[in-house]
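FAQ: What does a multi-protein file look like?

Like this. Sequence, then tokens, then the next protein.
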Amino acid sequence: MVAAGAHRPGPLKQQNKAHKGGKHSGSSQRRAGGRVSVKAQPRRRIRDLSRVDRRHQALQLRRQRKEAVLAEKRSLGSRDGPPHLVVLVPLHSSAAARDTLRLLQSQDSAVVRVDEGKAGGFTLLCPRLKQRWRFVTAQAGDLHAVLDLAKVADSLLFILDPADGWDSAGEYCLSCLFAQGLPSYALAVPGGADLPPKKRIDARKKLAKAIEKRFPEAKLFPLNTEQESSLLLRHLATQKQRHLAFRDRRAHLLAYAAEFVPGQESNLVGTLKVSGFVRGQTLDVNSLVHIVGHGDFQMSQVDAPPDPLSLNPRVVKGQKRSQDMEIQDDSVNGTDEMEEDVKVLMKADPNKQESLQSEVVPDPMEGEQTWPTEEELQEAEASLKANRKVVKVPKGTSKYQAAWIVDDEEEGNQEDDDDEDDDIDDDMMEEAVSQEGESSEEGEEPAEEECETMTVSECLRDDQYDEKVEEDEEMLERYKQERMDEMFPDEVDTPRDVPARVRFQKYRGLKSFRTSPWDPKENLPRDYARIFQFQDFSRTRKNIFRQIEKEETEGASVGWYVTLHVCNVPVSVMESFKEGKPLVLFSLLPHEQKMSVLNFLVRRHPSNSEPVKAKEELIFHCGFRRFRASPLFSQHTSADKHKLERFLRPDAALVVTVYAPITFPPASVLLFKQRSNGMHDLIATGSLLSVDPDRIVIKRLVLSGHPFKIFSKTAVVRYMFFSREDVMWFKPVELRTKWGRRGHIKEPLGRFDPVFISAVLGRMWSSWAGETANGMFCFLLRDPWSHEVPF
């Protein structure tokens, strides 16, 4: 009996999940019996900090960063640190650089001035402020000297014109400096004191507005009085230093003095003794040093001569004047101060010293098979007999000479197989013209050439005019090629005189850059046996940088004045230093002397619009290095295969691939092109992307044909091939149109006249109006070998 109003469960009653007993954490631990799981526990337990603790931690981090910045400011230019290196860069042809130097030298009586002769600079020593500065003036018009000095400078002092600021040459110099990496800088405006006060204020406002684009937060320092020069020096000493990554991890120095000791075998090669202040990192005598623009070298020993720019020099009575004269004389003549109190810090250990080997010496017998068997020798001899040919040779010709004589039928089938596809038609045309000239002279007896004397006016023999016309014609041809490559990318005409299967035998049909497989180790050139490759480049780079940060290297510390004995240096290095060019040295990290394949991500500089073709010789400024190379251009994509670009595109970022010494990123790169008159044009800027020899660069060719007859699902296409054998050879390759319609070759049609050979294409699923059929063929391309060339 159920009471009225009682609840009765319906068909939709909730069904709860049953309790899974024995699977909670306590029971699982009991079942484990004390065993610990294989999963490793984290080394540092993550703790949830309270608000007060988080605030305190952030305050400590800010305090540490502030103290690090202050310590860096105090060490630079102090007694224990290197002198504050300031490079003066005039940005205008009428900028008063000499007035700037005169005002900076005219300080109070507490400042000691040491002139440096031909170097175009001086040193300020201020014992009262415990500061010392070294000012170096960059040579006007020498862009490479400015860039080399900016690599090691602590501060750049730009000298502006009070009216115009900078000219076109100054704008070009600023573009290069910003692309390479700009250290701390200051803007000085000497002159303008003779203008009326109102015009002076207007000129300064105009100049401040002009520099807003390049230097948004910069401050202009007028430089007309000694007080203004003191304010500028104070600003240089107290401003925050900007870091360049490629020099902070390497020891470097700017030569203060140098001496060349010729070797015993030759006077052209010897030991270069370079004196200067160590900057950046500790310098190890067993590491290699790179002299910018000249190459890599080993060191034999490191000496510690007395500091010529000491704030508190220890001088014996009666020798103060002679010591000052010695410093000035050494700086003028570029010799090293090797005196009795020179102390040898360290000597190189042959067991620990880095090797100068930059290339692998390939073994020609490596990978060779075993000695062939008797059956293989008999097969090879039979194939040689089958391939023997009968050639008509003059009487008395030996077998060795007859082997080099080429038959006329084979002469037309041989090709140079050069990568420059555009030069083939020109070679064929020249050959045809020469053959036509020879055929016209057949049957005629050789006659002596008749010569006569003519008087030619000087205006017709203007060599400079002819050279200018040739350069203009060559540039016009390059513009045409670039334009055609932009309108019809990778399209080439099928040759008429050479079978397509022979001309394009290195290529293969590629359906997709993204999905089609391609082995990066396939068909490698011989030069790849000479380079080095990392198993994991990123891991090696991280390990080297971690060792620099944590381990303390034995050697000359930062701020020491040392003399480096660099071995096997050519005398041209010393000659360039005597001419007034800067001598900059960088220590190399492990493996940085070895050759590999470097990939740079660059973008075309807007100031240059001339066409730049692949494999043209360019000048590279990569970090602290400077070398020449002939690069390849390729697209920058996320795929594993990258299409070759024949020209440097102005509207996209491209990857430049070269053989070059290994450099660990980050590092900036500048690409220059040398003109016929010796001037260098900046064509692209960027950074080092990777060191990867396995990056696949594929050269693509597109053969196009014209639709002759169009049916519902098939079409007849002609002018793609001119031989029935070529049609059958390329039959497996899939064809497509520019709108993405795809198909395959079914069969060749037409007469045997090569002009009318056509092909039936099947599975074309849409209209063919206004389209052409294309076949894409690719082959793996490696960049040409290039060396670091000093200049």
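And here is the next protein:
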Amino acid sequence: MKGNMTSRTLLLFLALMVTNSIAIMDKQTYIVHMDKTKIKSSIHSQDSTKPWFQSVIDFITEVSVQENEEEEIAPQLLYVYETNMFGFSAHLSSKQLEYLNQVDGFLAAMPDELLTLHTTHTPHFLGLQNGRGLWSAPSLASDVIVGILDTGIWPEHISFQDTGLTEVPSRWKGSCEEGTKFSASNCNKKLIGARAFYKGYEKVIGRINETLDYRSPRDSQGHGTHTASTAAGNMVNNASLFGMAKGSASGMRYTSKVAAYKVCWPLGCANSDILAAMDQAVADGVDILSLSLGGIAKPYYNDSIAIASFGATQNGVFVSCSAGNSGPFKSTVGNVAPWIITVAASYTDRSFPTKVKLGNGQVFKGASLYHGKTIQLPLVHANTTGTQRTAQFCTKGSLDPKLVHGKIVACERGMNSRTEKGEVVKMAGGAGMLLLVNQGEELFADSHILPATSLGASASNAIRNYIHSAKSPTASISFIGTTYGDPAPVMAGFSARGPSIVGPDVIKPDVTAPGVNILASWPPLTAPSLLKSDKRSVLYNIVSGTSMSCPHVTGIAALLKSVHKDWSPAAIKSALMTTAYTVNNRGSPLLDIASNTSSAFANPFAFGSGHVNPECASDPGLVYDITNKDYLNYLCSLNYTPTQIAIISKGHFKCSKYTFFQLGDLNYPSFSVSFDINGTNSSVTYKRVVTNVGYPSSSYTVKVEEPNGVSVKVEPRNLRFGKLGEKLNYSVTFVANGGTTISDTSTFGSLTWVSGKYNVRSPIAITWQ
């Protein structure tokens, strides 16, 4: 996570960690067919306000209670079908299946089955399919080495076994370093290298406590194992977190070789260690580097990751970094150097919903990875259950057991972790927890150790009002399980936002990718909630953060590297950006969950160019390539001193005295322009060069969506290519319309080159100052 940084350490974006256990018993998924006419009539006569499928689920739950089946877990609704068929799918026990016979309109229940191998949901959501396109055998055959800078790795995990893999590439120069509970034998043809960097960290913190962490590449925190498997872990069948999110777990480029560089420890990551690891990784021979870590944005010459990444880029290594978890506040985005791809986080259509019902009948949707039967108990707010000022946040020792025993406690977000609040409630004798917030409708699915759920701001306000006004407030929490089909993508509220405070002429972040509720590998000795009192052991965990979205893009970049071996890092980045999409699975513009309304649209300062689209990125039509000299000329346009530029270029470059370098002329696949809000007819012209990587003979026509308050002129408006690799220039003039009233500080548009199946899109951001 970002924040609380020292000048010598960087904190992981360990964001919003998640997970929870379920007793699976004899449950399995069934597809339930219902008679529409009978079920509608039957349900309408009982409760016309309740969705019919919820009435069926509630009926099953009620019968279970009447039968005194105390150990029975509530049915888990997965899908609702109302178009091609009428019914639903749900996770049911054999007894719950029998109770369906008592429901009017029930026709039949068919056991679910897998017709083909099913990947983790994010590859499916991203359009990756076995045997096709980027996941075809030829695309996966070549050796691509992915380097992960993180908290280390759990080498014995099945995601990193090497059965059936090719030998270690002869070009690989890395090694498998020995240390605490780690030896050279832990590496294989999948995990081909592992190193630990801690000298800088130990200088600041002192020697690593080997009872809390491993002084070796072995992972004690889970974060590094999770990110490595997301990018390049093996495809593993029947993965789940206690039965949730069940499917085949797979990295984006699951045949890649993995090299783990442990740079992060319990209290953070030292810049010196990160620089050393990146330097070593490039020397070892990695093709892609993934860093789910960072600090506040700094001038590039004062940013260790920016500096090391520039060197990596010079050597042809693609660098992917997380944007940070300090959203939704503006200008919080980190890792903003233009030679880095900066990745935001968004939701997929999978969720883990709960239903909170108050004693007055109000019902609200929440989210949780806890799984169990519905509880209905007295409800109290934490600020009335203790004498300490921090009681409302459910901090350690703040709650009075006499006031919370056997009750559901409403805790405010802040001061400690979300799962720790639940632990505090449980230790004080509480029976459940509602996690309340003041802003945004983000629903965090966490691995609570007691019945608990998060809620959005509107629900939180209603619950506070109810508690304060009701004489004897009560609440129930129902845990629905895994569901699919939500509108998606949706921008995560925690995802850091632009504009960049370092380089406002470049839109950051660059793209968004799945970063919420991501299932991936986990060390079996690390609790899924990261709580010491949590003794559960898992092989997979569900985690959220830009730390999770970053390795998705890392793995996709590895896929593109496989099919386009001659592409530069900038070309790969351009392909990912210009093919990204900005509409959801319902055809509507991407939404921002950070808003207190359900219809607030996100913008490029949240998602960059849009949501990554791997298959389209493999065939983008045109790319915006950038040379190392182009990047250095860009630094000249920032008026960096020769010393500052030398820090980045290693002293091999001087700005020309005879060339004018204009901000915005970097051949970037997006446009960011600043205007004085009181200016009249002020204008700026940017230049771009596009390279043909589509059809040898092709013609492109420009399509412009003008931002509010600005007119956009492109010259020429048509580009005609005669061969692959041909480069053509164009210019874009932005003119601030005099007399226009601008109510927003930023307005947005786009510029798209269109040719047949190709739509090479670049976002435009106008900042009014």
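Q: Is there any per-entry metadata?
A: Some entries carry free-text notes. For the entry above: DSSP finds 18 helices and 37 strands in the chain.
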